[in-house]
Structure formats: C-alpha cells, structure tokens
C-alpha cells in the first residue's frame, strides 16, 4: 500500500514495523517515551509497545550507547536516539572504541547490532550544537556503517534495513527534511535496494551532483534551475556514507565527465574529499574538469541568522557546476 | 577442585545498614575474626573449599609469574600483573554463578581463570597474536576492557537485558580505583540505580593507577561513592579471600532478589608494576611495598590453613606442583601460538559484506602475490 508520509512519520512507521518484526528490538534515548522524542519520531511507540521496549534514559549519551552495547551482548537489538548531532560527542568513545570494534576485537564471536539514530544538519534556525554534520568522524571509523536517507520512502526502508543489519549502523536523519512528504510504499522486499547502494534520483548528461541527506533536495532544486538554463544535471543520492557506492558514481561520471559533491559538513576532510579522490582515480581520463566540492566553511557552525551563508544552497551548487563546465 | 557456586537464599541477605567500615573475616595474621555478620554468607565454606581457594590463588599467582617471565624474555609485548590481588579476584569470581556474566578490565587474569578460560588464551592479546582470546559466551566473561570504565556500562546494559528477560542472574564488572574517575563509571552508577538492574560494581582499589595514588582519584572512600546514586557500598579487605567471597555473594544475592546494584570496594595492593613497562620505584617507597607485603593475601590464607590443621607440607607441595604444571603448559602454549595472517586483518570487521573492505583485501592479496611471482 502506498501512503503520503513525512520523513519523520515514515521513520516512525519503519521503527514500528521493525519492532513488530523482531521482539528483541528495543528503543532507547532521552525523551523518546511519552514525548515521542523532540522531533516526535518515536511518537506513540511507548504507548503501543510499553516502557520495556521504548526506554527513556538518563541524560548521558555515553551511558545510552554503553548500556545499549551491554543489551546487544545479551541478545537485544537496540535502537538508540541521540537527541541532536552536537550531543553525540560524549558517546564518541563508546561508539568508536566499543561499538565499532566489538566484532573485530572478539574475532567475530560477538557483535553489537546497534542502530544509532542522529538528527543532523542545519537549516532550522537552531541554537548552537543543534545543526552539526559529524558524519565524517564515523565514516572514518572501521566497523561502523553510516547511512542517511534523503526522503520519506528511503527513510521508511533504510531504518528497517539498518535495524536488521548485524553490523552497527549510525543512521543520520536530515532534521530539516523531517516534515517533507513523499510517497511511501510498504510492500516489496527491503532488499530491493541494498542499504549500501547509491541511487540516481534524476538523470542528466552534463554534470553529476553527488549529495546525501539534507543536501539532496537542494541538489535536485539546483538541477531544475539548471535545466531551465539548458544544463542537464544527474543527481546521485549517496545514501550510504560508509561504505560509499563508488560504482554508481563512477558510472554516472563516466557519462557526464563532471562531478560536484555537495554536503553541509565542512569541506575540509569531509565525505566530498574521499569521493573526489576516488572518482579522480577511477575516472581520470573521463573527467572534463576537476571534481568540485561545495559545503560548509572551515568554521564552527555559525549563529542561525548567518547559517544561510554556511549551508550550500542551489546557487552555490550551481556556481560549482559552472566552474566544472568552464574550468 | 573448586568451590561450588552457591546461591545465597534471599532470607539470608543481611540487612545493609550503610557504610560501616572494612569487612574482614581473616585477620592479617591468619586468624578468624569474631562477630562480623558476613560470616553467615560463607558458613558453608569448609576445609576442602578453603583449600580449593588457596589452590586457585597459588595457581593464578604462578600464571602471573610465568607471564611476567615470558614478557621479560620477549615472548609477550606487555603484561599487567595481578600480584597481590589474588584474593580479590578469586574470592569474587568464586562467588559467581554459572549464568552470571563478567565484564572485566585487563588485570583480571585470576577471574578469567576461575571462569574456566585456558590461560594460554589470555596471552593472545599480550603477545599480539590477536585482540582477544576466548568466546565470551562460552565462559560468561567478556573480552577485557582496555579503555577503563567503558565496561561498567556494558555490564549495566547486560543487566538491563537480564531484567527484561525476567532472569535471576547478574552481571558483575571489575574496574580499578583509577577508573572510578571516568565518566562512564558515573553514568553506569546512574543508569544502574535508575533501572535497579542486577549488576555488581566490583572495584579493586589497588592503591595505584599507574603512578597516581588513589587519593588523587577520590577524596571519599570508593565504597562511599555509590551512596549519592542510592547504591549501597561495601568496603572489604581485598586481601581476605573469605571476606571478598562473602561480600560478592551478598551483592549477587541482592541483585538476584531485585534489590539492584551494589558497589564493592576491595581494598588491596598492586604489589608489582602497573605493567611490565612501568617502574614503580619512581613514585612509591619500598616502605609502602613492605607494609603491604605483610598483608599478602596468600600468606594470610596459608597461615589460616596451617593454624587450623587444614594444610600440611604434602598439600602445599601438591598445590605447587599443579601450579608449575599450569605454568609449563602456559609457556608451551605461548611459544607455539600462531601469528595472525594477512587475511586475518580483514576478517570480522563487519558481519555482512562490505564493498570497500573487500576491495582493499583483494588489492592487498594481489600485492602480496606479486612477491611470490617475483621469487
């Protein structure tokens, strides 16, 4: 059955489906019970599944992840909510030293199939520490999978795939897209599109834009503007940030000969650097121009009344598209 | 050969009445103390069981000595000796029941031994032959935590799982006095008390976190530090194996009875260096060492056994011989331990196929194969 849902609602439906499917799935986090989370993504789940499966936690992020590790070692499949991107750092040790390495350290005898949900990114006028894009820290860490849906349909499926995965998954949710609606089909196998696969959301022939999470909608907007100006842009939604589906990007770039990578995170040492390097290696003789990157500056996230300068918009993406076309 | 795990009936849980000083059942000179209510918790420990505890302690001290020697001979990269902490480890581990689960730190070789882990497997980490040694599920003991304090949260989460399962077992986590300064310990106390989960926090206060004395970590006694969280604390003489056994049984019984977490501070002493890379003469005095040498946990139990006619020369020689046999087997296992192979690097990073890792593995294999072709 197909329904029109917001991303937030689609994630809620996906969580519900995962909990119905597997009684070992438990949700943990701050304010996720009666309140339903500050973004209401877990709304109604404690009411329907009880407070032993939707567990409000004390305000301690390392505690949330560390206890989830213990629950996983007991056979549970915890889904942890970190309330905001900027609050994940207290849990960094547990995620990087424990969650990511547990299977490796134990030579495969033990796994911790956690899903760590993180609302991320800016554009919502928030106060500091509420608009960050920390995905590169986690993508850099072996043992984790890092994914981010850009739309409701992917949100519904990807959250279920992440929970079903026997690997730990850091699941970044583009918070400014929570309220954007899309068609969600709840039929068909989850494996139709593997979790680590990128998808082409719009076909084009002149330039490829690779984006993920909140920046995908911006990239699609840029592509529509460019079309009016006679430039055909292909938009690749990476979806998975670790691993990255370089094959899909490569096929696209071999066709277009040009690539712009867009994300909200600071450009320096961001995902775009890795994509640019790999695609330059793979497509060197197909590239008509150097790979361009567009993203946040080498500054901390600014005050919200200046965030529109920090966040790439369609115009800044198109500026890089132009530099690709006229190198 | 070992003390039987005993479930203490709920009716025998002494009322916890707050912090009331050091629990000691065997005095430093090997005499039974009088009047301590904790005696009730070990009333079943007869001569045979006392001898078994002694045997355990001798064997783990021997394992420790052999590992120290192997490190000095270049066979281990590092070793963290347990010398002096045999009573704290054996006494607590022998209180555990088969379905309890242990989350240790890196010095708990004696605990792993009591859980049935082959000592050779303990050496894999220290030799650099692997990152762990044994299957945690098989022995009910997790891979040791090197990031101190992190494991207390894992124990708390595991105990939450026990509660969700409706089971009556418990989780027990070991950490040192240094780790009590870590935020994860504080968070574990908070979570455990909030959810009232069956977890035992077992701190071996061995007085030193590498070069830092315990007074740098804590102004209050460690046993007192649970009270603000509503967690009862027991301070026990960590060099008194019976007192440690009693305190741990009490804590496990409380856990299984739904009375929540307990903090045990076992006051002991790290008689050796922090690790084989450490030099304690730079930061502590020979007088300190000597004062604690007089409280040696093995000497104390030996004195009790001899005073009560429970040990004679034949028994001691038999125990020493069995410890030597374990050490010989440990040495043999260490020297014949295989090194990891290149393919092992890429195994078990993920449970499911991972495109990048697969690509790197294939590329590295091809690179190595190039050397073979050239030769």
Protein described:
The complex is a heterodimer of chains A (327) and B (375). Chain A is 36% helix and 21% strand. Chain A has 327 residues and is of the alpha/beta class. Chain A folds into two domains: 2-192, Thiamin diphosphate (ThDP)-binding fold, Pyr/PP domains (Rossmann fold, 3-Layer(aba) Sandwich), CATH 3.40.50; 199-325, 3-Layer(aba) Sandwich (Rossmann fold), CATH 3.40.50.920. Chain A has a seven-stranded mixed sheet, sandwiched between helices. The mean pLDDT of chain A is 97. Chain B is α/β, with parallel strands linked by helices and 375 residues long. In chain B, 45% of the residues lie in helices and 9% in strands. Chain B has 14 helices and eight strands. Chain B has helices at 47-72, 86-93, 109-114, 119-127, 136-139, 150-165, 183-195, 214-217, 241-256, 286-293, 297-307, 313-335, 342-346, 355-374; strands spanning 22-23, 101-103, 171-176, 199-205, 208-209, 212-213, 233-237, 262-267. In chain B, strand 7, helix 9 (241-256) and strand 8 form a beta-alpha-beta unit. In chain B, helix 1 (47-72) crosses helix 2, helix 1 runs parallel beside helix 12 (313-335) and helix 6 packs parallel to helix 7 (183-195). The longest helix of chain B is centred in the N-terminal third of the chain and has 26 residues, at 47-72. The chains are: A alpha/beta (327), B alpha/beta (375). Chains A and B meet through helix 3, helix 4 and helix 5 of A and helix 6, helix 7 and helix 14 of B.
